[in-house]
UniProtKB/TrEMBL annotation:
Organism, as annotated: Cladocopium goreaui
Xref: InterPro entries: DUF4116
Name of the featured protein: DUF4116 domain-containing protein
Domain DUF4116: start-end pairs: 21-54, 59-104, 109-150
Amino acid sequence: MWETVGDRQAFNAQGQGREAAIQFASKELKRDPEVLLKALGRTASALRFLPKDLWEVPELMLEAVKANPICLSTMPWFQEDEDFVLMALARNGMALQHVNKKFQRSAKVVLEAVKQNGLSLQFAHPDVRADADVVLPAVAQNGNAFGYAARLLRNDPNIAFQAAVILRSRAEGNSIARQV
């Protein structure tokens, strides 16, 4: 069994590969943002070992979502807060898979997620995946997102052309950047 770990170096050394090593940290280390985020990056279950008052600190919870999108699913107190969800998705779009279903139906919310990570389109409600105003920014962020668009959009020659133009301009931009 582990003993309580009181300094950051010892915590980092003992915490390697341990899912919930934060449970063995001293009270002081459990309040250290660097230690918390490292633990949350390993596993969302580390949240249960945090001091309860820290669960209400939005900025810390947003950083937790950035480190590990699964953390959002363990924060029911923020699940209904659209502003918090939007900020979380701006940090890690893949957290869209862990938000309340009503937000997966919202073009505004999904758009925020796909701007950060186009592949988060796969977690949007089918109606939103049929919205060109959401799909095209997703494709601009990650060309592979086009595969998650609704079949109706994938088969639309105009949308397919717009997606191809976006992908081509990105590819040309990358080749120019490599030449410089």
